[in-house]
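Morning, I've got a small favour to ask if you have a moment. You're getting the sequence in one-letter code plus the fold written as tokens. Thanks so much in advance, here it is:

===
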Amino acid sequence: MTAIEGNPQTARPRRSIGLFNNIKFFVLCHGMLQLSQLLVSGYLKGSITTIERRYGFSSQMMGLLAAFNEVGNTVLIVFVSFFGSRVHRPRCIGIGAMIASMGVFLIALPHFIDGKYDYTGINSNKKDNYSGICQLENISSEEESNQKCNQNKTGSGVYPIFLLGQLLLGIGGVPIQPFGISYIDDYAEKRSSPFYLGILFAVTVIGPAFGYMMSSAVLRFFVDIDKMSLGEINLENDDPRWVGAWWLGFLVAATLLLLTSLPYMFFPRKMSREEIEEAPAEPSTEKMVCRTDTTEEVSLTEFLKSFPKIVMRTLRNPIYLLVVLAQVNLAAMVAGLATFMGKFIEKQFAKTSSFSNMMIGGINIPSAMLGIMAGGVILRRFGLSVRSSALMCTIAVLVSVMFAIPLLFLGCPTQQVSEMNVHDFQQCSNACSCSEELFNPVCGSNRVEFRSPCHAGCKKEIRSADKVLNYTDCGCFESTDFPDFASPGPCNNGCNNRLIPFMILSSITCFVASLSHTTSFMMILRTVTPEDKSFALGIQFMLFRVLAFLPAPVLYGRAIDTACRVWGKKCKTMTSCHYYDLDMFRHRFLGLQIFFICGGFVCFFLSFMVLRRINSTQQRNEKMNNQIKSESSQEMKDVKQMVSKSNGHCNTQSVLRE
């Protein structure tokens, strides 16, 4: 049977299918598939800074990469909504998952076609000079740099491969959720369908959390662990030049996607609805077949012609439009934070990528999940009306703004860096002819950080009996009162105590803002006509992609790049940022968060005001109608009385005549 053909009589589920004719098994398979798909999303965002450092990408480029899977998704979603009832949905899901798996394998490909990670950036003929100390002999750094650039490719060549992988991931993911949900809703027993869908919605939150946690574990391994022995690795996990094995998680996720796609090849196009005690299973199946076939009368041309009319009719609904715009603002906030929150924690509090991802996957995402669940419980417990739901969303988002504002002041000060804000040390290493590509941070005895021992003018390195490394004879300290030595690694900013209150406040913000998720979703379902309900949800998700998921990561990445003060260089090309103005980074990154939350608050507040106005208008109209009815009733009584009196008078006159 092909994906589009099929007769209702021949499409009946066969007895030989067995396990694959069970909707519960389909829910299990679909939950595993969605978990694998969303695992990729969380893992990619957890690996953003690692890939950025490995290939020298800017934050704006990484933002575009993170959002690029939405391109294929957005283009094809309209056709999916049309062909949904005409194709073999399980097989389409399986084929889509295989395409997504190919895309994830493609994302991991650059590691295998590129050379080893060069973290030294040293232009020296001495093979043992890994640290980049000052060398006074006459070395043409420009000549050696050009030779090195001819031998090694820069990261710009692999960027299109990443984009293509993300594009395939987005295309493959198009049928997974809509086809899976509609298939379950068609063949699950009505009372069980909400429970099954609730499981899938829970997976949409758990999946990214697993992705962050997996990146936290995998990034502890060195990127070239498959190309070199452990003894050859001269970096520690907390070194700012460390790059974890980012590719390993993508291989795991791609394999999981491929394995979870296989069962869909064996599910039938149509299966028997779950048995109901009050009614036999066979009639419900017949009803299902008739309902499914009626949708095939509409041609693709007619569907495309009616598409703009339905869109305009849906968008003319003021409540729908305001609630969707509020959700778009919150979705843009989530898209930006999910992409770059790990980088923010890493740079702001001087933490590793593994630690940052563990904080997000273990604290922030569970807080958001609890908020979504709590919002649903409140909605069900109190039976909120549409107006009360709008008020709840408005209050929840307003409270989240109040918790988000203090985050602007919870951060670390910008470290003292010789090339950024301490101008007295910018000329002291000129005799060393330090390469612009060098990046091996050291902390001077005066608590000033230098890009490398060479930039600090250090000519010697010594290792004590307990293998502690120090750099001595540093020319940049000769004219100062400080000892002429430097320690490897960045200077400690001494503000680790601010991380805990930051995580507490950010988690509360996530929890409170998430209270509006389920409530706003139900507002949309209650304010559109039944015939436009499915289409309204499709427009909602399309607007999410076009207005939030696509532009937000790029906007956040651009804002982060504007806070960079010292860019890395490779082959005379600007690469990833080495040093940020941390205050500017914090204010612009979290400022965008507050901006989008405020946008959501304004839209929810306007929806509440519109609903209150509609409610007052309805009450006024009802009052007028009741008054009119009352007056009409009184007039009718008066007329009846007049008629009765008139009849009595006429009867009296007739009696007198007689």
